[in-house]
Amino acid sequence: MMAVMELVKLITPRDRYMLDGLVYGSAGAQRGYIFIHGLESSAFSGHQVLAPLAGPDTQVLYFNNRGHDTLTGIKQVADTAKGYTWAVGGAAQEVFTDCTDDITSAVTFMKSRGAREIVLVGHSTGCQKAIYTMSQSVADAAVTGVVLLLPNE
After folding, report:
1. Do 8 and 22 meet the contact criterion of CB atoms below 8 Å apart?
2. Got the DSSP string for the chain?
3. Which of 26, 27, 58, 131 is most buried when burial is the number of CB atoms within 10 A of its CB?
4. pLDDT higher than threshold 60 for residue 2
5. Domain 5-149, second-level architecture
6. C-alpha closest to that of 93 among 123, 75, 64, 68
7. For the chain, which residues make up each domain, given as ranges?
């Protein structure tokens, strides 16, 4: 039986992009996995290989980083009547080093749900994003590991 899934929105800390995601498992679970998709892929691309790990002790987050799809619109928090404006995003517009902002928002979200041991799971270009983020000063002590799935795909 698969754990309950919830649609979520992450807000990046620096430029305030709104990133869509899916979280599986119970809030309060101490262990968390964050899946980082590759270039032009998305949280909804069918790579839910980690979802069966979710349960009372483990939560799993899939989220769209700003490099999802080839070219797309991404909501950005703004002081407007709607509360957001549209920015151009996707792989064609992505600046690789901005991945730290996206991953930081995912780690912050998981910590807000109670995760204290977080593993980044990169797939394809997501591998490089996970390693790059861990090499920067923005790396969070709650991140206890990194898994690389098909780094050369």
Report:
1. yes
2. -PPPEEEEEEE-TTT-EEEEEEEES-TT-SEEEEEE--TT--TTSS-GGGGGG-SSSEEEEEE--TT-SSSEEEEEE-SSSSSEEEEEESTTT--GGGHHHHHHHHHHHHHHTT--EEEEEEETHHHHHHHHHHHSTT--TTEEEEEEE-TT-
3. 58
4. no
5. 3-Layer(aba) Sandwich (3.40)
6. 68
7. 5-149
pLDDT of residue 151: 73
Whether 110 and 118 have beta carbons less than 8 Å apart is answered as yes
Please give the pLDDT value at position 148.
96
pTM score over 0.70: yes
The two tokens of residue 140 are 């969070």
- CA distance to 29, 40, 46, 54, 126, per residue, from 1 (Å): 18, 30, 18, 10, 28
CA separation for the pair 52, 72 (Å, rounded): 29
pLDDT tens readout for residues 121-151:
999 999 999 999 999 976 789 999 999 998 7
